[in-house]
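Extended Data, panel c. Modelled sequence:
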Amino acid sequence: MSSEPLPVSRRLIYFCLALAALALAANAMLWQKLSNIQEQLARQSHEAGNNAVEARALAKQAQDLVRETAARLALTENKVNEVALQRSQIEQLVQSMSRSRDENMLVEIESALRLAQQQAQLTGSTEPLVAALRSADQRLERSGQPGVSRVRSALARDIERVKASSVTDVPGLLVKLDDLVRQVDDLPLANAVSGSGGSVPARKLEPPPKLAWWERALAEIRDEARNLVRVSRVDQPEAVLLAPDHAFFLRENMKLKLLNARLGLLSRQTDAARADVLAAQAALRKYFDPAARKTQAAAALLQQVQSQLRAVELPRIDETLAVLATAAAGR
């Protein structure tokens, strides 16, 4: 009876040992599983780091690609604009080349007439304009086109109008002004003490050699006495007050007025030239002897210049140019 409990205790010990072994085995399995999980997490973390590096590299590549694409797009837009500009230029060139022969002829005639009009304004002569109008009419006549009848009618009217216009004789006026400039130094002043009226200045007359010495002396005394007092009429008080040393400046000022009138005439400033001629006429009447022949001749020449200085503009051919532009445009 006393020996039966021993097997039970052994069985219990064996059972405990078996449980302990099972616990150790489970613990070992758990530890191995945790180690596997840690290794997997480390591997995943490493892979995530590598993926992040690759993502940053890809992002940088994407940014570089975007910048390169933007630069290429800008370059493409510039090329497109250049192509569009070249296309418009080519279209204009094609349009200009596609003009008919008659249109080109009308354009050439218009250019020639405009050039002739400018030449006429520069030279002050209507001859270049008349010659260009006649040449244009002859060219249109040779073309034989019925559509240019209006242009020829306008040309005929402008030819008659230009031929009938009067133009200032510029070369003749320049010659007269130069002659007046040369005459200024010889014009007698109104307050000159020498003889007036354009006569020979009073001077001592040589007595006849047959007179006695005392008669010659009396004649000289009589001439000197006559020259001491001279009574004359002066209409302008300024002429009497003119000092002898100012006469030089008066003559030079009058020359400058005449030269300014010459320059105004050459530059087609008729109003300025007329004003200078009027100033020269006023100075001639005020300071120079009106009874002297030279003064009268200068006054007559100045009057001729003044009457010929007409503010006549050169005729324009606007009607012909308008008809030519309409015909060239095909309207």
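Residues 170-201+230-308 form one domain. This feature is highlighted in the accompanying rendering.
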